[in-house]
Amino acid sequence: MESIKSILARSEGKTLKHITGEPQSSQTDLPEFCPPPDHCICKGVGFFSVDVPLEHKWFGKAHPCVCSLSKVQNRYREWLWQESRIPEGYLRKSLNDFDIGKDGNKQARLAVVKFVTGELETPWLAIFGQYGNGKTHLCTATTRSFVLRNVYAVYASVTDLVKDLQRGIDQNRYFTVLDGWKKAQILVLDDLGAQYQTEWVRAEIE
User: What is the DSSP string of 37-64?
Assistant: First the structure.
């Protein structure tokens, strides 16, 4: 069986450290802007302009300085962590410290790594296992791995998700609440299937 490291080696130069739990620095992709230099040149303004001909695409545009980008990136990362809904006790759980000694756990982690790196081309991934196998650890670590890659990922137990939707109905805010969940790029559901008690719940989850 191919190792995780070899899979990651093919994933655009990413390393196991990047995927499985260590913070990484990233540069915001701004194809419509002039790439800023590696030091601040805006004198505190936050933006800079470039001397280009009138017909140039950057003429008359204000471009974010590297100091401004850094602040925006930091605020965005903080927002991602807040929105991730990872329980406090699992914030530092990573794929690195997931127990692969239990039956099926090694294959489960391998599937998650492929999913996070994009090698597993599927819109969703389902992991099954017995109680106590570490599914919650795997779910939160998956969410964490996406957040570390600046992806808007949200963790939720199905119980909490259903309660949130039901509160939305009681407060006449159902569609607002539902849209809030739909905005996530990656939605990681824990204990999926445990709350299929009514046809309504089944329909909402599906």
Answer: PSS--STTSSEE-----TTSTTTT--EE
Provide the pLDDT for residue 205: 56
Cβ proximity of 161 and 135 under 8 Å: no
The two structure tokens encoding residue 22: 């260590």
Distance, CA of 102 to CA of 61 (rounded, Å): 57
Q: Are 195 and 201 in contact (CB under 8 A)?
A: yes
Find tokens 């996406």 and name the residue: 146
Report how far Cα 104 is from the mean position of its chain's Cα atoms. Answer: 24
35 pLDDT band (50/70/90 cuts)? low
Q: Are the C-beta atoms of residues 138 and 99 closer than 8 Å to each other?
A: no
pLDDT digits (tens, 9 = 90+) for 88-133: 999 999 999 999 988 889 999 999 999 999 988 888 898 888 888 8
Calculate the CA dihedral of residues 111, 120, 81, 93 and round it to 10 degrees.
10
Report CA torsion sign: 110, 101, 95, 122.
positive
* Max CA distance (Å), the chain: 66
pTM tops 0.85: no
Q: pLDDT class for 151, splitting at 50, 70, 90?
A: very high
d(CA 119, CA 121): 6
Residue 12: pLDDT band with limits 50, 70, 90: very low
* Nearest C-alpha neighbor of 141 from the set 106, 95, 101: 95
